[in-house]
Design goal:
TIM Barrel; seven-stranded mixed β-sheet; 9 helices
Length: 371
């Protein structure tokens, strides 16, 4: 009897331990790898009480683990410190140190970053992969922080360039300051999605000036409050790396292999966005129905985003609108009126909520063999 009770007790303890250490949830973000690369899910613009955020750095780590992210960066404002009276910290590296300590037993990369905060027209910029945040603190000089970031090998991107506090028009103000930073290799990327807001003019600028396309949550409160309870996922940047490591991430960012994602919205260069959408759909159970010329196929969505498509084939659908959605982590049976028995079908669909340029959607092709 005692042995039986002991076994039950150990089972109870083990179960509780396992539950307490399960970090991912049903809302875990899933996106497939693309040929030749590992897809890293990143959120590289976040805040805590060590600048103007509302949570301790450990919370950011656990949110990221729950969402199944691969990489985060706590990019505290260097100059803007509204909690300094209650949380004085002359060392601007403290937030990063706390996050690193919390994540040490987990498969989550914490990238050392900071936000350089300036008024218009310079605006705000995040510097990633820095070694020490303190030398970047130059409140009265706008150029020196970028020079120091470059010295430390940082990847720097322009935050919310369409923010009306920086540009009254709501469009990015690509000033001479920004042009000089790009020319000096001190500015490398630009947010096209920030806090769930997509700006097509920022995408246009990114493509014109060859700036890396970024999407971030810019979270200050809780992810649950600002996103989940409103029915949204956090905005992220998918980075296509050769390996999951800080070195692999840095190489991929400097080479512009990214796609910004928010809910069902995808924004990126065609060479990365098309293979991502294609890899997100698996086609199964291809067959003709009975003695008809109606070809049925199951489209399975391997991503956390609803994927909306428009038919671009010469064939029409049976029982389905030409505009349709394959639900996130779900599937849809598509029926194609081929008018004859085919040995293969070239499925051609336009990805409606994916943008490779302002107002331009990619067309994705699948070559399907018919048994």
């Amino acid at each position: 009897m005692k042995a039986h009770i002991s076994i039950l007790f150990l089972f109870f303890v083990f179960t509780c331990f396992a539950q307490n250490h399960k970090h991912t949830s049903n809302g875990e973000l899933l996106y497939p790898n693309i040929p030749g690369y590992t897809t890293l899910k990143t959120d590289l613009h976040q805040h805590t009480v060590f600048s103007d955020g509302k949570v301790w750095p450990t919370i950011r780590v656990h949110e990221a683990l729950r969402d199944g992210l691969d990489v985060i960066s706590l990019t505290e404002h260097l100059e803007y410190q509204p909690h300094a009276t209650d949380i004085p910290h002359p060392d601007r590296n403290r937030s990063f140190e706390l996050a690193i300590a919390e994540a040490k037993d987990h498969d989550l990369l914490i990238v050392h970053g900071s936000e350089i905060t300036r008024r218009a027209p310079m605006g705000h910029s995040n510097a990633l992969f820095i070694k020490d945040a303190n030398p970047l603190l130059h409140p009265k000089d706008s150029v020196k922080p970028f020079v120091e970031a470059k010295k430390q090998g940082a990847f720097v991107f322009w935050n919310h360039p369409n923010w009306s506090a920086q540009s009254p028009t709501g469009n990015p103000n690509y000033s001479q300051f920004h042009k000089d930073r790009v020319a000096n290799n001190e500015l490398h990327g630009i947010e096209v999605i920030n806090s769930g807001y997509y700006d097509k003019e920022s995408l246009e600028l990114a493509l014109k000036e060859n700036l890396v396309i970024m999407g971030t949550s810019d979270i200050h409160g809780l992810i649950d409050w600002d996103y989940t309870e409103k029915g949204n996922s956090r905005p992220i940047t998918l980075v296509f790396a050769k390996e999951k490591s800080e070195k692999g991430l840095k190489e991929a960012l400097f080479n512009g292999r990214t796609v910004a994602v928010f809910n069902s919205l995808f924004v990126g260069k065609e060479e990365f966005l098309k293979p991502l959408i294609k890899a997100s759909i698996t086609i199964e159970n291809v067959h003709y129905e009975g003695k008809t010329q109606i070809l049925a196929l199951t489209l399975k969505n391997n991503s956390s985003s609803d994927l909306q498509f428009l038919n671009k084939m010469n064939y029409s659908f049976y029982g389905e609108s030409p505009l349709f959605t394959v639900p996130a982590k779900g599937e849809l049976v598509l029926k194609v009126k081929t008018l004859e028995i085919l040995k293969k079908l070239d499925l051609k669909l336009e990805a409606i909520e994916a943008f490779i340029a302002p107002d331009k959607n990619p067309i994705i092709d699948w070559e399907i063999k018919v048994e």
